[in-house]
UniProtKB/TrEMBL annotation:
SUPFAM superfamilies: ARM repeat. GO terms for biological process: Golgi to endosome transport. This is Protein dopey-1. GO terms for cellular component: cytosol; endosome; trans-Golgi network. InterPro entries: ARM-type_fold, DOP1, DOP1_C, TPR_DOP1. Pfam families: DOP1_C, TPR_DOP1. Residues 1-62 form the DOP1-like TPR domain. PANTHER family: DOPEY-RELATED, PROTEIN DOPEY-1 HOMOLOG. Residues 374-390 have a biased composition (Polar residues). Residues 361-390 are annotated as: Disordered.
Length: 845
């Protein structure tokens, strides 16, 4: 074994020298490396692999006659002067070497004779080689990677040690007999090498089955090149490893079963569907054998293998085979569901109510360095008693949910075809019974499970035949008071869920919009206070905005009159800031999701409400409140303490219009931010998307920068006595700057939003926004010399107010041409992101 180990070390040195030469950017170092390479003996790699092949094949494959121990054997013949005597085989030479270098002690031989057994050095060497087979395969895999790289990039300076084609042939000649005669040990060694070659960089990963590293890809390619190992043989070998994992040397404790299934999954991903269907019976036995293993990770990988099979192979025509496939799919899904519900507990004895167990959960995005510990732990857990299985598997509940989220929907869609798709409803209903408690819990410690369940529900909601299993639960979750308490990574899943919920039939949206009415809201809360009714009203309006936000353009255009009626009813509560803020959110969503001609009737309402809120802000700034009663130096310190005192006041005093209104309360500040975000979006969007707003733009920020054709006529006929209208934003900026001098501006880019923050704590945070919009009117345009060839553009240019993303036509003549499609796309993407963030609420601790 010492000789074999040294040969492996020599191969590793060649591999390391090659990668060092590829990593050196210094030319001198490359030259030195090239000289070292050329100083190697010709066909050095071939010689080393042949020596490794001779030693390993003799010990692992040949079965010579029993050899006597050194004490009883006859004297050795004299050593010939030649390297070996004529007619002497290589096996005889190696047998003599084994006897010469045998380290067995006399006591062991005498004990062997006394017990009736004879020490066999060949069997001993075979056991040692099989135990250290992972070390040998690791060196061979590393060399195969080097040879592949040399062949790919044509590094001919390395061919002196053996051309890539010849070296690969010798590697396959070495591995083929071993893999055929010692399949389980070979596959277990592949599993160990697979684990050692995993991605060791800690990267976020939301999948149970980790992504493959380049070394693992080459390992699959190496095994696939062994022609004596067809897919049928590999499946049978994997089954043997799952039943009885062989003992091999491991530097780190490795879960042989899990890594074997990971390798097998990667292997079948490169096979054809016809090959998979030919091995159907063997694969069926593999799944049945794997179901007997208690390890949760084994169940997850078996479900992944099933997913790969149904995705790649053609449909099974045999009825019995279809029934067997459905039975296996049902059992694997149930096994994963059992692990998924181990983090739930029953709250009552009479009813089957489940709730999430308190305490932190193990997230799936665990650094890959800890993967070996997790895999080892799952094997130790599997060996424990069933009484502790629930507590042991609770740490894998998040991974079970992620497995179901990734594989459940496509597996059921392929396994159940035609009229049999209705059979999935009972199974999905049972799974939703376990998923719903996770979705109802919005605490931070439940966030990993909540995110996985959102993905699971989003995936199964995309199939029409699954609607009966999740429609009721999803609708109830939408109306839940804590529905929006999630992170931005989950809101995308819910956009898909709500879209499918409202789209797959014609009654769900009608049922939903019927709830968004004053009469309905009041009837549900006959004995509630006005404040609770206002809060419920705001919640329903926010959900209405989210439902429209999840739709396609003009999807609900025929419901615009009903939507406008609900908004008009809510506008009667102008003294309630929480309701008004959600109305402005609805306005923003409607302007994005509806065509301009479908929202024409809304514009008078939108402009009126914006003017009223901006007038209210101006009135508040004119009142000498405590926030503005001190100088500008200590102002920013005082307003925070004042805000804390205001937040402790009774909400009825804040919302009661007959008393003093606390307009620097967070609810009012949120309203001010909402109206400013609406104005920011209308100014950022191009004029052709919001043509109606161009008639009202002057009332808020004034006209756009003067056209170059008007520069010479701006000052002509100007009367000093004529009154001039000052836009609302300019008035607000002047008032704030008068009370608190500030020259801060926001970065201005045409077509981009200025306000992206979800909330504010002081009106002063809007001062840079007001200053920036005020500067748009005062921006100076550089006069451009107009030629006669573009006179028709002068006729089309008009002093109509434009959005800031539609600048002067004359100025555009000398500017680079910007694709309108890309420009609008970037603006729309930013608006989508900001709207998503405005829906999200912080999770409870």
């Amino acid at each position: 074994m010492t000789v074999v180990h040294q040969l492996c070390v020599n191969l590793d040195l060649i591999s390391s020298k090659f990668w060092e030469s590829q990593g050196n950017e210094n030319t001198a170092e490359k030259t030195t490396s090239s000289v070292n390479c050329t100083s190697m003996p010709p066909d050095y790699l071939i010689t080393v692999i042949e020596g490794l092949t001779t030693l390993c094949h003799y010990c692992l494959l040949e079965c010579p006659a029993p050899i006597l121990s050194p004490l009883n054997q006859s004297p050795l013949p004299p050593v010939p002067s030649q390297p070996y005597a004529p007619g002497t085989s290589a096996s005889q030479i190696i047998s003599n070497l084994i006897h010469v270098f045998s380290t067995s002690s006399n006591q062991k031989d005498i004990a062997g004779r006394e017990t009736g057994t004879v020490f066999d050095p060949i069997l001993s060497a075979r056991r040692v080689l099989l135990n250290d087979l992972p070390r040998i395969l690791a060196s061979i895999a590393s060399l195969f990677q080097v040879v592949t790289e040399v062949d790919k990039h044509n590094h001919q300076e390395w061919w002196i040690m053996g051309t890539p084609k010849v070296v690969k042939q010798h590697i396959l000649s070495f591995l083929s007999p071993i893999s055929l005669n010692h399949g389980p040990h070979f596959m277990a060694s592949i599993a160990v090498v697979w684990f050692e070659n995993r991605c060791k960089i800690s990267i976020p990963n939301r999948k149970v089955i980790p992504p493959l590293s380049p070394k693992q890809h080459l390992l699959v390619e190496l095994v696939a090149a062994i022609k004596v190992l067809p897919l049928e043989t590999i499946v049978q070998t994997v089954r043997s490893v799952l039943k009885t994992p062989p003992s091999v040397y491991q530097k780190n404790k490795v879960a042989i079963e899990v890594n074997t299934l990971q390798f097998f999954l990667a292997y079948i991903q490169q096979t054809s569907g016809s090959q998979l269907i030919e091995t159907w019976q063997s694969l069926l036995g593999l799944w049945r054998d794997g179901l007997q293993i208690l390890s949760p990770l084994v169940q997850f990988h078996l479900l992944g293998i099933l997913h790969e099979f149904v995705q790649r192979s053609p449909l099974l025509e045999d009825k019995k085979s279809q029934k067997d496939l459905q039975d296996i799919a049902h059992k694997l899904i149930e096994a994963c569901s059992t692990v998924a519900c181990d983090s739930l507990e029953q709250t009552t004895w009479l009813w089957r109510n489940l709730a999430v167990k308190p305490g932190p959960q193990s997230d799936i995005s665990t650094p890959t360095e800890d993967e070996g510990h997790l895999q080892t732990q799952t094997l130790s857990d599997a060996s424990k008693t069933d009484s502790n299985s629930a507590s042991n598997n609770a740490q894998y509940s998040v991974q079970a949910l992620c497995s179901l989220a990734e594989f459940l929907a496509p597996v059921l869609d392929f396994v159940y075809v035609g009229d049999e798709k209705e059979k999935v409803v009972p199974l999905l209903s049972n799974i939703m019974h376990y998923v719903t408690p996770y979705l109802k819990n919005h605490s931070t410690h439940n966030f990993p499970s909540f995110r996985a369940c959102c993905q699971l529900l989003a995936n199964i909601s995309g199939y029409q035949h699954t609607r009966k299993a999740w429609r009721k639960e999803a609708f109830e979750l939408l109306l839940d008071a804590s529905f929006f308490q999630m992170t931005s990574s989950c809101i995308g899943y819910w956009r898909s869920i709500i879209d499918h919920l409202m789209t797959h039939d014609k009654t769900t949206f009608k049922d939903f919009i019927s709830r968004v009415s004053v009469a309905q809201s009041g009837s549900l809360y006959l004995f509630s206070s006005k404040e609770q009714e206002y809060e419920q009203r705001a919640h329903l309006l926010k959900r209405l905005a989210f439902v429209i936000f999840c739709s396609e353009t003009d999807q609900y255009q025929k419901y615009v009159p009903d939507i406008q009626e609900r908004l008009t009813e809510s506008l009667r509560m102008s003294h309630v800031p929480v309701v008004q803020a959600q109305i402005f959110l609805c306005f923003r969503v409607l302007l994005v999701r509806m065509s301009p001609n479908h929202v024409t009737s809304l514009w008078p309402v939108i402009i009126t409400e914006m003017v009223q809120v901006f007038t209210q802000i101006e009135y508040d700034l004119n009142v000498d409140t405590e926030e503005f009663s001190c100088d500008g130096v200590g102002l920013r310190k005082n307003h925070s303490s004042h805000l804390r005192r205001m937040s402790t006041l009774d909400s009825s005093w804040v919302m009661n219009s007959s008393n003093l209104n606390a307009h620097n309360h967070p609810a009012w500040l949120h309203l001010y931010l909402s109206v400013c975000k609406l104005l920011d979006m209308t100014v950022a969007l191009p004029a052709n998307i919001l043509p109606q707003f161009q008639m009202y733009r002057w009332a808020f920020i004034g006209d756009s920068p003067p056209l170059s054709s008007e520069c010479n006529n701006r000052n002509e006929g100007k009367s000093s006595d004529s009154p001039e209208f000052v836009p609302h934003i300019i008035r607000l900026a002047n008032l704030l700057n008068k009370k608190v001098p500030c020259d801060e501006r926001l970065p201005f880019t045409p077509g981009q939003l200025l306000l992206t923050m979800p909330s504010i704590t002081s009106i002063l945070q809007l001062q840079p926004f007001f200053n920036t919009l005020s500067d748009i009117r005062n921006q100076k345009t550089v006069p451009v010399k107009i030629t006669r060839g573009v006179s028709k553009d002068e006729n089309t240019a008009s002093p109509i107010s434009k959005s800031r993303s539609a600048p002067d036509l004359h100025c555009l003549l000398n500017t680079p041409n910007i694709s309108h499609t890309n420009f609008s796309k970037s603006t729309a993407e930013q608006i989508e992101m900001v709207l998503e963030a405005d829906f999200v609420e912080p999770c409870v601790s």
